[in-house]
Sequence to fold (134 residues):
Amino acid sequence: MTLADKNLTQLATLTAKLTNVHLSYLASLVREDLADGVMAWDTPEGTSLTREDIRDLCKALEPEKKEDLGLMPIQRLMLPIRAHNALWRRGYKTVGAVMALSRGELLAIHNVGEGSADDIMAAIERLREELANS
Fold:
């Protein structure tokens, strides 16, 4: 087990009781040290953590962020231009707004036919799978 792995294990044990707010604050302190050019930190055991070790610790401190599918812009759907423009012109700017539409409502939008509706539904499903697998 490398020193970084050992420190990450110890860090995980210590941080189990901390909230995400605490973890974000600690990560911001680590990032400040990195920005200030700190090349290594001395540990209580008398060893040094390199910049790479510090980056690993910083990643471990950051709470996991899940992207909110509903708040993503419709550009993330990577739709054909015709479907994108039709939704955009009707004021559907987020994936969540598009997800709220039924197939019938999609078909009622000017310039959205069966093919475009299929493209939109498939794009939403692809994005859901992409986020589930990440």
User: Anything to note?
Assistant: Residues 3-61 form one domain. The mean pLDDT is 77.
